[in-house]
């Protein structure tokens, strides 16, 4: 029977199903099994220090890639060395590599705060993809398949789930939740955890990269400096996927005005623009809107109620042209159209709303009237396909079995957002480390962390202009999780490969200015 299964593997048609079957299980509990800590949320036993190791084979860009997957938990300790939490992770290592010292290591986080690492793990950079169509919509049967575009061919990857996400849990009821749930607390304990992971897995010599999505960009921007200053760990790159504002303040006028290029992209997608704009390609049309936003809209909105009425009407007319929203509506909102209202208004005449995180998605509300959508059409779609897939994959393919609930979004609130200087933290880390490069990846149809605000981050983060040669931006024709669209999945991973190659110094080249 084993021989027959192996022959099926070689045909390729059963490669994922067979090659991802667990072949070895290794448990390394920090305490004896009888002393396993109970989850704070239930009576289900939770071991904060254990792992399962499995062997796999996949094909990436036409090349056979054998790899080892380590799935499990690793502890977080307090200052006295007492275990206060267990962090759930999955670590993928290419297994035919002899020189691990020169092999890049990518440390991956998602956002929320409170989101598991599921999104990028089984839809972007990892060796496995969930079952969706080429535009990212759910299909049945649920499950996973090979990711032939994964970056595992050029880098090892560890997907990390902060406390209360996925299977990560607190273990000590006396530990204040503020130890974990805040901008700076999150960065502090995760930096300690990364240090432990790198030490246990003998990866101190490896070039290291952080990648974060959404709130994960706040996290990795803060980690870049925290790792340097308190763990003495220096990075080669930080990748920001659909970045937040990174604590970089916006004025009232700029905050409102910077939305317009996103409005324009969304209106273009839904064919709501004037014929001359609609006839242009998206990336040919957007620069005109961007220039208007910076050179005309921000100055006009800065005048507030004292703007000349004729100028106000002229600005509103141009905004209507670029947004697909009626000029009367724009004037009624004093040029400041709220995001919720835009998502409700753009396709109101067709009986649809558009998605917040990806405005390609449509929703249907109870009534067409109102100031915002009833639900996030894109998030509902994503949870539809991701939740079954990750539960199937971890248990059946990676051999990790637990009765704990996999938290797609876990309880992490109240979250302390005070003291968010993560954009400045990243700038400072770059200034201190000549090796450190930054890549931003944004979807044009993302209304939560829009692409133009991501560009604005880079402009404001480096006022001297001396770091811009180590900063790059890539845009994609999709939304918050731009990789759900197959074309952008391919391009996004290729962009990551190029970024890694660009940021690896040649042997012997010193880190100096």
Provide the fold topology.
Blueprint: H1 2-11, H2 15-19, E1 37-38, E2 45-46, E3 50-60, E4 63-77, E5 83-94, E6 105-109, H3 118-121, E7 128-130, E8 144-146, E9 156-161, E10 169-170, H4 183-200, E11 208-213, H5 215-230, E12 237-241, H6 252-257, H7 260-269, H8 275-278, H9 282-302, H10 309-323, H11 327-332, H12 339-345, E13 353-354, E14 362-363, H13 377-397, H14 422-432, E15 437-443, H15 451-461, E16 471-476, H16 486-503
Parallel strand pairs: 6-9, 6-11, 11-12, 12-15, 15-16
Antiparallel strand pairs: 1-2, 3-4, 4-5, 5-9, 5-10, 7-8, 13-14
Quick overview:
The chain is α/β, with parallel strands linked by helices and 513 residues long. Helix content is 36%, strand content 17%.
């Amino acid at each position: 029977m084993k021989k027959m299964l192996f022959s099926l593997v070689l045909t390729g048609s059963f490669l994922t199903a067979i090659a991802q079957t667990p072949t070895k299980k290794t448990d390394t509990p920090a305490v004896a099994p009888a002393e396993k800590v109970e989850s704070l949320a239930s009576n289900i036993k939770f071991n904060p220090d254990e792992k399962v190791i499995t062997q796999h084979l996949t094909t990436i860009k036409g090349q056979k890639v054998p790899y080892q997957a380590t799935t499990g938990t690793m502890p977080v300790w307090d200052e006295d060395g007492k275990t206060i939490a267990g962090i759930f992770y999955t670590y993928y290592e290419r297994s035919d590599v002899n020189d691990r010292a020169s092999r890049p290591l990518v440390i991956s986080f998602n956002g929320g705060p409170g989101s598991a690492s599921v999104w990028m793990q089984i839809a972007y950079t990892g060796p496995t993809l969930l079952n969706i169509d080429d535009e990212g919509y759910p299909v049945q049967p649920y499950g996973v398949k090979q990711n032939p575009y994964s970056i595992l061919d050029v880098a090892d990857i560890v997907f990390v789930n902060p406390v209360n996400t996925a299977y990560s849990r607190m273990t000590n009821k006396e530990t204040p939740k503020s130890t974990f749930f805040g901008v700076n607390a999150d960065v502090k304990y995760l930096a300690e955890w990364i240090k432990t992971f790198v030490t246990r897995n003998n990866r101190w010599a490896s070039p290291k990269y952080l990648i974060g999505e959404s709130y994960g960009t706040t996290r990795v921007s803060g980690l870049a400096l925290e790792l340097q200053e308190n763990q003495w760990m220096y990075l080669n790159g930080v990748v920001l996927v659909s970045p937040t504002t990174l604590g970089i303040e916006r004025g009232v006028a700029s905050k409102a005005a910077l939305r317009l290029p996103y409005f324009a992209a969304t209106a273009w997608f839904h064919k709501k623009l004037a014929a001359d704009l609609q006839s242009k390609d998206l990336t040919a049309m957007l620069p005109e809107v961007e220039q208007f936003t910076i050179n005309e809209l921000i100055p006009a909105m800065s005048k507030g109620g004292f703007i000349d009425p004729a100028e106000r009407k002229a600005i509103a007319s141009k905004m209507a042209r670029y947004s697909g929203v009626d000029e009367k509506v724009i004037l009624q909102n004093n040029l400041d159209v709220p995001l919720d209202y835009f998502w409700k208004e753009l396709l109101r005449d067709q009986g649809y709303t558009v998605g917040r995180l990806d405005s390609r998605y449509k929703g249907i509300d109870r009534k067409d009237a109102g100031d915002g959508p009833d639900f996030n059409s894109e998030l509902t779609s994503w949870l539809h396909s991701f939740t079954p897939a990750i539960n199937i994959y971890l248990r059946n393919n990676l051999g990790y079995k637990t009765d704990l609930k996999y938290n797609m979004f876990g309880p992490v609130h109240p979250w302390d957002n005070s003291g968010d200087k993560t954009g400045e933290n990243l700038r400072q880390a770059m200034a201190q480390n000549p090796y450190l490069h930054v890549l931003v990846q944004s979807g044009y149809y993302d209304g939560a962390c829009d692409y133009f605000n991501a560009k604005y981050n880079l402009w404001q983060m480096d006022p001297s202009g001396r770091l811009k040669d180590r900063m790059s931006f890539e845009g994609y024709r999709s939304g918050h999780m731009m990789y759900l669209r197959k074309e952008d999945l391919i391009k996004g991973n290729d962009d990551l490969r190029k970024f890694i190659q660009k940021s690896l110094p040649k042997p012997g080249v010193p880190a100096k200015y």
